[in-house]
């Protein structure tokens, strides 16, 4: 028996920004004749398949492979650290003996990153990557018709989808040719001399669409959605709810490092009509007694390579609605900037943002006093506002006075006062105006509790955005803490 020790595991460590993991078993014993000195470098099988599936990505050298993986937040590793085999020519996983498994590094990498998908290059046969992984972590799994299985959040702190790939190895092609999935699609490749290979390319293209598709890159270039990295760790179920929607549209958010809470809308910059990012001071009075929850915008921006113009005005991002040269805020901003005179605050805001500003009274019962839980700008000349007849008179009168000056049309959004036994002091259940518009979709809060107005609200938002896909989401776990989908997101 000869012992094989893995040569590459330590050379490509996980990163906290990783969202996917490719996991195999172990390379052949001899590596000195590898075409590429890296994972799967002997026959370059998986890299050849991915290169054919995604011609706009680079997989032709170790340097280009590492760069492509890092750019797309993909980690690659193997489940076996070392093993024994009868001869150095033995490559079949089933013939490997005395396995030492890579469980500690894999667990650390998954827990300390954002991984929600694991791609296994071999399945549940003896010593297959998926089998060894599930065995070492005591995961009960059952493959569905898509060759996928769910990994419950109790194992790594978030729900993960395991995907078993068809083996990239050419030795597996005979077995794949007898697979019912290939047989079902065989007519598609009837005129091909490399039918199984083309089948594998097609399945890899579909499996890795979110990771390597050029469509994803185009979306990132036009606008980018950001979430705090803390959302995944503190609210994994909420993240999975959001992720399922984003995956439908091949939207890959970026995750903000070194934040102290999840409400990134408030401490991130505000974009002007000229495309400039203006970063306001973030020292909200409602966090005065909880400084550990107060993120430092300078540190967050620097750590995440975001450049901005800095202003000394104290303003949360959730307390401004801005479109073109129009900005609407609540009067909370004046209290937050005392002893600075009201006129000076207005002058500063209008100068740095290049806007004409309008103000409504903030609701005294609302801890934050933010505008995005009360009204939103839909487009030039149109607002949506919480149903006026259902609101306090001073709020209703304030809005009507402001809109007399602005002169825009408005549509009323239903809302309700939640009275469930689990209601917290900060609870925002019942507020529908805190939706998120991103690219072609609207992520719209629904609550699915007694007394809800979900259907009425969905009807209103559908009429306001007839050209967009409305995606209802229930993230009540976060809503109980005082914010909704707009509060936990930022778009650049």
TrEMBL record:
<keyword id="KW-0378">Hydrolase</keyword>
<dbReference type="InterPro" id="IPR036895">
    <property type="entry name" value="Uracil-DNA_glycosylase-like_sf"/>
</dbReference>
<dbReference type="InterPro" id="IPR007466">
    <property type="entry name" value="Peptidyl-Arg-deiminase_porph"/>
</dbReference>
<dbReference type="GO" id="GO:0047632">
    <property type="term" value="F:agmatine deiminase activity"/>
</dbReference>
<protein>
    <recommendedName>
        <fullName>Peptidyl-arginine deiminase</fullName>
    </recommendedName>
</protein>
<dbReference type="GO" id="GO:0004668">
    <property type="term" value="F:protein-arginine deiminase activity"/>
</dbReference>
<dbReference type="Pfam" id="PF04371">
    <property type="entry name" value="PAD_porph"/>
</dbReference>
<dbReference type="GO" id="GO:0009446">
    <property type="term" value="P:putrescine biosynthetic process"/>
</dbReference>
């Amino acid at each position: 028996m000869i012992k094989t020790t893995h040569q590459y595991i330590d050379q490509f460590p996980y990163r906290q920004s990783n969202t996917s993991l490719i996991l195999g078993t172990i390379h052949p014993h001899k590596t000195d004749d590898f075409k590429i000195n890296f994972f799967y470098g002997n026959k370059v099988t998986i890299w050849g398949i991915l290169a054919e599936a995604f011609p706009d990505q680079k997989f032709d050298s170790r340097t280009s492979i590492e760069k492509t993986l890092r750019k797309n937040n993909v980690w690659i590793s193997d489940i076996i650290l070392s093993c024994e085999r009868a001869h150095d020519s033995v490559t079949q996983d089933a013939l490997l003996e005395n396995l030492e498994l890579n469980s500690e590094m894999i667990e650390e990498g998954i827990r300390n990153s954002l991984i929600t998908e694991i791609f296994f290059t071999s399945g549940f046969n003896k010593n297959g990557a998926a089998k060894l992984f599930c065995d070492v972590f005591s995961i009960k799994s059952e493959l569905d018709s898509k060759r996928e299985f769910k990994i419950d959040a109790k194992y790594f702190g978030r729900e993960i989808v395991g995907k078993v790939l068809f083996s990239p190895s050419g030795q597996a092609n005979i077995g794949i040719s007898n697979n019912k999935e290939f047989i079902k699609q065989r007519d598609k490749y009837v005129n091909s001399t490399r039918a199984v290979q083309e089948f594998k390319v097609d399945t890899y293209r579909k499996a890795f669409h979110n990771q390597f598709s050029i469509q994803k890159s185009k979306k990132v270039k036009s606008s980018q959605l950001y979430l705090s990295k803390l959302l995944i760790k503190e609210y994994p179920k909420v993240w999975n709810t959001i992720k399922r929607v984003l995956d439908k549209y091949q939207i890959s958010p970026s995750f903000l490092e070194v934040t102290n809470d999840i409400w990134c809308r408030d401490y991130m910059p505000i974009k002007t009509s000229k495309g400039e990012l203006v970063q306001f001071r973030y020292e909200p009075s409602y966090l005065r007694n909880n400084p550990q929850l107060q993120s430092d915008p300078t540190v967050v921006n620097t750590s995440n390579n975001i450049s901005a113009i800095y202003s000394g005005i104290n303003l949360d991002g959730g307390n401004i609605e801005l479109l073109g040269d129009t900005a609407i805020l609540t009067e909370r901003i004046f209290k937050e900037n005392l002893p600075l005179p009201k006129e000076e605050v207005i002058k500063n805001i209008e100068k740095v943002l290049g806007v004409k500003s309008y103000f409504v009274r903030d609701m005294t019962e609302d801890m934050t006093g933010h505008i995005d839980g009360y009204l939103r700008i839909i487009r030039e000349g149109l607002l949506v506002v919480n149903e006026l007849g259902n609101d306090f008179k001073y709020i209703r009168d304030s809005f009507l006075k402001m809109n007399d000056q602005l002169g825009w049309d408005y549509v009323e959004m239903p809302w309700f006062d939640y009275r469930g036994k689990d209601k917290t002091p900060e609870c925002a259940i019942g507020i529908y105006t805190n939706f998120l518009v991103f690219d072609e979709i609207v992520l719209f809060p629904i609550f699915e509790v007694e007394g809800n107005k979900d259907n009425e609200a969905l009807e209103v938002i559908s009429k306001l955005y007839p050209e967009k896909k409305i995606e209802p989401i229930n993230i009540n776990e976060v809503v109980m803490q005082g914010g909704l989908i707009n509060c936990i997101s930022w778009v650049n």
